[in-house]
Amino acid sequence: MVWINFLEALIIVTVIYLPLLVGKSKRNEESLFWASLVSVFLALVATFVVNSEKLIGINIFNYLPILIALIAGFISYGIYGLNSKPTYTKLSPITWLIFLPLTDNLALRHIGLFYTSEWIYKIQILAWYVTVNVFLFAIIAALIFFFIYIRNGIKSALIEAAMAFVIGMIAGYIYFNYGILMAIISEIVFNFWRILFGFIKNKSTTQS
User: Fold this and answer.
1) Which of 66, 91, 125, 178 is deepest in the core (most CB within 10 A)?
2) Residue 32 predicted with pLDDT over 70
């Protein structure tokens, strides 16, 4: 029964991310915006249909998870900037600070964790414990973003997959302990550094 629920969740997630998987043109940040617009709409519809709000009802505001996500984002995108070239357009802030955090948390956490809510066994990852389904959907997030960015080259795809895995683990943990709103905020502050570093790089390139 659990595996049937997981397959149902996987089908829903695939449908939600299909526009991103087929709509991301090579090194085209604008195409990512339009694809993510469709995906966030599908995620909202799926959330309404699934009625998964029964899983997590808590929404506790706390500065600690935000601070953790902010620090993790700075470190991750600092390393990202050394190994890749972050792209930036006028639509990038909307994509990475609104559309993708909503899509990721509604699809991979709110719906995905709802369907696999029986997988409550905890495993230790570095210094904290997470449930198996949080770890699993962080891996699924990594695979999704790997295939979204594979057209940009294997190196770029691996880096994007690593970023998706890191925020998937952080947001999944926060989702279970603080609720969906805090999970969305944590991804927003994580992605903030991508926007900032991309803006700085874009501005310096323009001036030169």
Assistant:
1) 178
2) yes
Rounded-to-integer distance, Cα 37 and Cα 172, Å = 22
Structure tokens at 44: 């909202």
DSSP string, 106-125: IIIIIIHHHHTTT---EEEE
Paired tokens of 14:
């695939």
Q: Which residue is listed with tokens 């090579």?
A: 26
Q: Where are the domains of the chain?
A: 2-207
Q: Would you state the structure tokens that stand for residue 71, as one six-digit string? A: 């620090």
The identity of residue 167, as a single letter, is I
**Which residue, 51, 84, 90, is CA-closest to 199?**
90
- For 96-123, write each residue's pLDDT tens digit: 999 999 999 999 998 888 788 777 776 6
3-state secondary structure of 164: helix
Strand partners, 128: 125
- The count of residues in the chain is 208
Question: Would the CA dihedral through 144, 150, 154, 156 be positive or negative?
Answer: negative
Residue pair 138/168 in contact by the 8 Å Cβ criterion: yes
Contact indicator for 115, 5 with CB cutoff of 8 Å: yes
